[in-house]
Predict the structure.
Amino acid sequence: MLMKNRTVSKRTALITGLLLMLGLVTGVFSVVPVIDGSDYLIEASNHANQVLLGAFFQLLMIIAYVGLPIQLYPMLSRHNKSLAIGSVAFGIIAGVFIMLGVILLLLLLTLSQEFTKIGIGDGSYVQTLGELLREGRDLVNHVATTLSFVLALFFFNCIFYKTRSIPRWLSVPGLLGAVLSILASLLFMVHLIGLDAAYMILNLPIALYQLVLAIWLIIKGFNQLEQASVSP
């Protein structure tokens, strides 16, 4: 039975690590630089494939953001069912917001193609609508989605810290990184910072935590203490 439990724990750790890596990789490739400049309506239309590729990778993020807390739920619920349920709930909420972000991105692409057809001189209303869509997408991606997913990370990391299923030198930076990422989203929401260096610096710790945790779980798995308590 103990050997079987260790096998289950090892599989859980491996899948969790891979999902964390998937979340990081898809997050990087979902960035669409052509919609960040002042000529974003023209650039988005001229680089439609780049926009569609970004939307595709953003959709793949749903697998990581929703799958991660669901994958961990059987293990985490043994220690704190409330936090485990909260983690799954916020993961699902993050997935819904990701889908909304994809819809806004595709609407922005459609609008940019319409803008190039009617010409710059007659497109003031399109520009206004474009700004609203771009602002809405930023709020969905960098506030709603980020807050939801980081809260999911925070909840299951609280259990990691309590159970020592990963070393505390790893779980503590994860908790601190989550707090900094939440702060970045709130500051962005009230327009105290933009998508600038300050925002990136505040989100860097949680990204590094995800990377290190993914590598740790793939190579080392969960600590022996956790392995003994996991069952299928």
